């Protein structure tokens, strides 16, 4: 991720999106009147819509905190006021987001960077299961011939 790492295991990044026919391609939650996290009125990405601008860009993730839109701070806004800012943001939109970083020994594939640094479990299990199934088939086939 191309962003600066702030204290406390978070990173910040500015993402520029171009509005599509159905918007920016994501849903938000939060606000002073709809807190998702106790004592936190921040605005968060709740869902990335498939094939929308955010999905096709690939950088915005569900759970990202949106700090600002087009330079306008989103602190202390009611949910509907934040929604209105997004609706009226124009064609080219700049989002300043914050993301919690996963620890290096956290779950593979959830480190925010794409490559988990190892083989997927299926790449190990599937060939092993195929070999085991073939061995059992051979044993059973030749056992009945004897």
Radius of gyration computed on alpha carbons:
23 Å
Number of strands: 7
In round numbers, the mean pLDDT is 80
Percent helix, as a range, is: 25-40%
Number of helices: 3
Shape: elongated
Annotation keywords:
seven-stranded antiparallel beta sheet; 7 strands; 146 residues; alpha+beta
Write the layout of secondary structure elements.
Elements: E1 4-6, E2 10-18, E3 26-30, E4 43-48, H1 53-57, E5 65-69, E6 72-73, H2 79-87, E7 92-100, H3 121-143
Antiparallel strand pairs: 1-2, 2-7, 3-4, 4-5, 5-6, 5-7
Commentary on this structure:
The protein is of the alpha+beta class and 146 residues long. Helix content is 25%, strand content 27%. The protein contains 3 helices and 7 strands; from the N terminus they run ββββαββαβα. It has helices spanning 53-57, 79-87, 121-143, and strands at residues 4-6, 10-18, 26-30, 43-48, 65-69, 72-73, 92-100. Strands 1, 2, 3, 4, 5, 6 and 7 form a 7-stranded antiparallel β-sheet that branches. The longest helix has 23 residues, at 121-143. It is elongated and about 75 Å long.
């Amino acid at each position: 991720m191309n962003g600066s790492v702030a204290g406390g295991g978070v990173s910040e990044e500015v993402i520029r999106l171009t509005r599509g026919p159905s918007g920016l391609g994501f849903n938000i939650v939060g606000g002073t009147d709809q807190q998702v996290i106790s004592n936190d009125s921040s605005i968060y990405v709740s869902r990335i819509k498939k094939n929308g601008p955010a999905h096709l860009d690939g950088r915005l993730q569900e759970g990202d905190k949106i700090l600002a839109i087009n330079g306008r701070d989103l602190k202390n806004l009611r949910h509907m006021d934040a929604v209105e800012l997004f609706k009226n943001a124009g064609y080219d939109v700049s989002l300043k987001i914050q993301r919690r970083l996963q620890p290096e020994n956290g779950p593979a594939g959830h480190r925010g960077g794409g490559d988990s640094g190892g083989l997927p479990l299926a790449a190990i299990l599937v060939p092993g299961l195929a070999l085991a199934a073939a061995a059992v088939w051979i044993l059973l086939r030749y056992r009945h011939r004897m």
